[in-house]
Specification:
The structure is a homodimer of 214-residue chains. The first copy, chain A, is α/β, with parallel strands linked by helices. Chain A contains nine helices and nine strands. Chain A binds a DNA duplex (30 and 30 nucleotides) through helix 1 and helix 3.
Chain lengths: 214, 214
DNA sequence: AAGGTTTTGTCAAAAATTTATCAATACATT
DNA sequence: AATGTATTGATAAATTTTTGACAAAACCTT
């Protein structure tokens, strides 16, 4: 237990869910939350919740559960919500712009410090707090501020190319929104968040249901 | 084997990746793909690929692999990419609009047949092919066309409420883009695609890397 | 302060998923 | 046609993840 060791990936993927829920509880004035309560709210079992939380630096108390403020603090710390991350968005199309204009990032520790596009006509325009820069200025910008995370919001045909530019610029974490798998060196972390894939997953579920006998 | 049985969830999540890659190969004129080739392109092992494909109605051939056109067809069929799904988007903020204006959905079997918002000032405006309707018209619209999928693109505070409206309107599949877990009856499928969570996952990876000894 | 009760933390079992292995197969080459 | 080789499909092993179970802990009530 305790936070120095490696936390399994399925657990990591659940941590943001815990954080949102616990934060809400704390804001409502709820001071304690049991593993069962958390499990019910998130569609898990209490056993899973306790197992997950055992990876972290905190102890619950019998008969009360976990202290929401403490749990929130620990989760924020693990998920890096307390330190500011510098994020660049590549692609100022509909999706890239929507992200740049989305106010919630700053509140969660993600500061948009660059919005890039290939299209000359877009350069200089502003979305949210970000002004569109030429993709060729990416390397230069990387020299000025350390870029923590790059978001790929370009058409899938350009995704791999953009990924390589980000890697060259020294970016070690990439969020890929393009509908295409990208290949990067093993020291770079990629997380996919593809709306199209999620929709296809739903379409599969619908097909399954339609065919079901019961 | 064979498609009547239940396909494990991790497999389902990989299928869209296979589809994208195989489609690309086929368009490039590549007629055969081995499990090893597919694995390399997608960062998997050949064993996993063969295991995954064994759930489907298709046979590879020794020494050649899988026929790309056949594989693509089978994947499209399983993922429902050949039939049109009716999709509504709730929330005409930046993200909802970006999705409505995103042209790629129609090509993949998802037709936006409604864009709803609570804000009276937005009603009547058009984004992409969709005109914003009042959220109160959702039930009415559901009576006219069968809504297959609902996309929740509202602030997290409204997510649960919107989810319930969708359920009442008879929607059986929901894509939740809000940063909050939603609760629905067990006959409704929910898939989360939360950009914020993905970013937090990356932030965790960055923190881990910073602390690593090697 | 003693007893009852709820909930944790941990260990072990069960289930699910991934990976390794290898005989069978089908193609290519000679 | 015979031989060699690459690749599948299937089975089994290994690993990972989830769930179950229960003693220990801590609170509440009397």
């Amino acid at each position: 237990m305790h936070s120095s060791e490696q936390i399994p990936h399925p657990v990591i993927r659940r941590l943001p869910k815990y954080l949102v829920h616990v934060q809400e509880l704390r804001e409502e004035g709820v001071e304690w939350a049991s593993s069962q309560e958390i499990a019910d709210a998130l569609g898990l079992t209490s056993s899973t919740v306790r197992q997950d939380l055992s990876h972290m630096d905190l102890r619950g108390i019998s008969k009360k559960g976990y202290e929401t403020s403490q749990l929130e603090a620990v989760l924020r710390q693990i998920l890096g919500a307390d330190i500011m991350h510098h994020v660049v968005i590549i692609g100022a199309g509909h999706l890239g712009r929507a992200l740049a204009e989305h106010g919630a990032f700053a509140r969660r520790g993600f500061e948009i410090c660059g919005l890039f596009d290939r299209d000359e006509d877009l350069i200089g325009k502003s979305f949210g707090n970000a002004e569109v820069m030429s993709i060729h200025e990416l390397a230069e910008q990387a020299g000025k501020v350390k870029i923590d995370i790059g978001i790929i919001a370009v058409p899938s045909s350009a995704a791999q190319n953009v990924a390589e530019m980000l890697v060259e610029a020294g970016v070690k974490a990439i969020l890929n929104l393009a509908y295409k798998h990208i290949q990067v060196p093993s020291n770079v972390t990629v997380v996919d968040a593809r709306i199209m894939e999620s929709l296809q997953e739903l379409a599969y579920a619908l097909g399954k249901k339609g065919k079901a006998v019961n």
